[in-house]
Amino acid sequence: MITIQSCKYRFDNKDFSIINTYKVGDTLVFRSDKGLFDSIEIIDKQLRFNGASEGYSGNPETCYILYKTIPPGKPELVGFGGSQGNVYSNEKYLLSAVKWDKNKLATIEIKFGGFDGKLPHEKSIITDDVYGTYYDITHFCINCIGVDSTEVVKLKWKPGVGIIWYQRKDSSTYTLVTKNNSTSGR
Hints:
Helix content: under 10%
Distance between the termini: 8 Å
Largest sheet: 11 strands, antiparallel
Order of helices and strands: HEEEEEEEEEEEEE
Radius of gyration: 17 Å
Oligomer: single chain
Strand order of the largest sheet: 8-7-6-3-2-1-13-12-11-10-9
Structural class: mainly beta
Shape: globular
């Protein structure tokens, strides 16, 4: 198994511990409180770095992890207009990491099923008897008008595992039952 970590990149070990949570080919299966299943597959991991911008002033190092739903969900609009018309895709970003300053932690955002939130720092970690140690993250817009009832509004992120639980706006909850690791190890 190969994990991404190289002297070429300026992400530090704490950043990589989050970035390396998911590998291309990983499949995550969640079960709802009503017995329904929801599954996603990690399909790509992209690291980008411009070595000329050593201090990251205006040109950060970035990482993106993409996923698709199983079975494929409704395509989302990813680009407007142009000669080819609007562009739709089943691929979605699950995690993005941006490192603006090599001396500070990266900003890590999770985007999942309409959810958009930042992974908090270690100071906000929770420990309980049910889930062990995790971060509890709420969508910035939990009661917003226009948010679809199936969109994710809250999730739990476990270090080393990733998303272990999420809640949709309709109050249904899903718990991770399986994380099948890939063999490609990217």
